[in-house]
């Protein structure tokens, strides 16, 4: 077996997905399964479809191209680049959009490819990432979109928590619903979709405060990792779906503070160390080129992650009751960012169970 090794439990991911699809359908919500954390992995995407997701979504058109054979609509959830308009129209069916000039580029390609391309206009509800913030600009955009050949305005949407950390609430999602109603009245439109956000919005399920008009959620973390708002576990879902193993290449007793004049490390930072005396340290063949050490939580709670260079992960194993050895393994749970990094790394072997 090649290490580092990322073990992915497809059965538990499917269980999570089926459960979330069930909960969402009971509220009239369609689930767009987001594959960006797994870099559009075809095996995982197929598992999401088998478990009932109605749309596959990703931030990269390159990832949607990988899964183009799966017979469900594909959604591009990063604001599209006009330079990729040809590929976007070819390999996806829906985009989350905010710039009229880019929508025109998509429309031009849709005409060339003899398609009608769907868009969801993004509204910024305060998180200050993507979307149109001011109402007069929303009106102006819709007025122009109506005249663009090859484009169908399918609905409106928003995103919260990812940049500004703004929590989804009934109040801010109500604003999205009011905007939909205003647009339908003003422009004689029917907007089919209100795309109400990501896994963070699941927190509104607990007190049944998610407005019933929200009929789509873009779920990634909850399906793949069983987590929702603030990375907290979602009740009833599996959180142990990804596990990373790294091989130990060195074990030595050493001081816990480097000796000599301190300068910048390999990443341009001045490192800070805690003096714990002489400690037993293990080095694993895993580094920042693969994953940041902050994303790793050792399964063995008595191990301390000290840090990493490009290729070496340095651990303090002094307090562990387990007897580690060179060529042995250390196992880790991963955060969302850790899974994203591990899936993107070409140096980490992926194993499905």
UniProtKB/TrEMBL annotation:
Keywords: Isomerase, Pyridoxal phosphate. It holds the Pfam family Ala_racemase_N. Coiled coil: none annotated. The keyword Oxidoreductase does not apply. Its cofactor is pyridoxal 5'-phosphate. Residues 8-223 form the Alanine racemase N-terminal domain. InterPro entries: Ala_racemase, Ala_racemase_N, PLP-binding_barrel. It comes from the Bacteria. This is Alanine/ornithine racemase family PLP-dependent enzyme. It comes from Psychrilyobacter piezotolerans. The lineage of its organism: Bacteria, Fusobacteriati, Fusobacteriota, Fusobacteriia, Fusobacteriales.
């Amino acid at each position: 077996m090649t290490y580092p090794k990322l073990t992915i439990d497809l059965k538990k991911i499917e269980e999570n997905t089926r459960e979330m699809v069930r909960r969402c359908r009971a509220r009239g919500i369609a689930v767009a399964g987001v594959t960006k954390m797994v870099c559009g992995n075809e095996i995982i995407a197929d598992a999401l479809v088998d478990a009932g997701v109605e749309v596959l979504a990703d931030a990269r058109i390159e990832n949607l191209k990988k899964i183009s054979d799966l017979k469900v609509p594909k959604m591009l959830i990063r604001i599209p680049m006009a330079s990729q308009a040809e590929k976007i129209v070819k390999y996806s069916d829906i985009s989350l959009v905010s710039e009229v000039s880019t929508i025109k580029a998509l429309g031009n390609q849709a005409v060339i490819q003899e398609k009608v391309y769907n868009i969801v206009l993004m509204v910024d509800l305060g998180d200050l990432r993507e979307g149109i913030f001011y109402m007069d600009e929303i009106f102006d955009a819709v007025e122009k979109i109506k005249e663009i050949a090859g484009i169908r305005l399918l609905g409106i949407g928003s995103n919260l928590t990812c940049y500004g950390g703004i929590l989804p609430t009934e109040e801010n999602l109500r604003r999205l619903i009011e905007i939909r109603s205003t647009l339908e009245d003003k422009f004689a439109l029917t907007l089919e979709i209100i795309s109400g956000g990501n896994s963070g919005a699941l927190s509104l399920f607990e007190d049944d405060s998610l407005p019933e008009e929200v009929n789509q959620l873009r779920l990634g973390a909850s399906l793949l990792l069983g987590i929702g708002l603030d990375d907290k576990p979602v009740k009833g879902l599996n959180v142990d779906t990804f596990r990373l193993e790294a091989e130990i290449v060195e074990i030595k007793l050493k001081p816990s503070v480097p000796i000599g004049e301190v300068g910048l490390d390999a990443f341009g930072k001045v490192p800070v160390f805690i003096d714990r005396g002489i400690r037993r340290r293990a080095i694993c063949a895993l580094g920042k080129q693969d994953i940041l050490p902050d994303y790793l939580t050792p399964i063995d709670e008595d191990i301390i992650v000290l840090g990493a260079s490009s290729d070496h992960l340095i651990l303090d194993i002094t307090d562990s009751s387990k007897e580690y050895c060179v060529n042995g393994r250390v196992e880790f749970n991963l955060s969302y960012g850790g899974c994203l990094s591990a899936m993107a790394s070409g140096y980490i072997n992926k194993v499905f169970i």
